[in-house]
Design goal:
The protein is of the alpha+beta class. It has a domain of 60 residues. Helices cover 36% and strands 20% of the residues. The protein has a four-stranded antiparallel beta sheet, covered by helices on one side. Strand 1 and strand 2 form a beta hairpin. The radius of gyration is 21 Å and the shape is elongated.
Length: 103
C-alpha cells in the first residue's frame, strides 16, 4: 500500500500497563496485521480491531492473558554450522528428486 509515509516512520507499538486487562498493538507490518486480523476473526472475545487509519496502520486490542513476548537465545556457531550442513543436504536431495520426475 502506498501511504506517503516513509518506511522508517512505520512503527509497531505495543502498549499495556500493569493494572489493565488489555494490550494495544498499533502496526504497519503487513504480516503482523494479517496474523492479528485472522486471530480477531477466530477469537473475537479475546482480540478486536479498534482502529484503521486508512494509511496502512491498524490498531488491535488483545486480552492481556493472550499476549506474550518470546525471546530466544542466539545460536552458537556450532549449531549454525550444523543447521547449514543439514539444509544443504536436504536441498541437494530435493534437487535430485526433482530431476527424477518424469515430464
Amino acid at each position: 500500500m502506498i501511504t506517503g509515509i516513509k518506511k522508517k516512520n512505520k512503527l509497531t507499538e505495543i502498549w499495556f500497563d500493569e493494572t489493565g486487562n488489555a494490550v494495544n498493538i498499533r502496526t504497519y507490518n503487513t504480516d503482523l496485521k494479517n496474523r492479528l486480523t485472522a486471530y480477531a476473526v477466530k477469537y473475537p472475545a479475546h482480540c478486536r480491531l479498534t482502529d484503521d487509519d486508512e494509511c496502512g496502520c491498524l490498531t488491535f486490542e488483545i486480552d492481556r492473558r493472550r499476549f506474550s513476548v518470546r525471546l530466544t537465545a542466539p545460536y552458537s556457531e556450532d549449531r549454525r554450522s550444523k543447521a547449514k550442513e543439514t539444509m544443504i543436504a536436504v536441498n541437494q536431495q530435493r534437487q535430485k528428486d526433482n530431476f527424477k520426475k518424469p515430464l
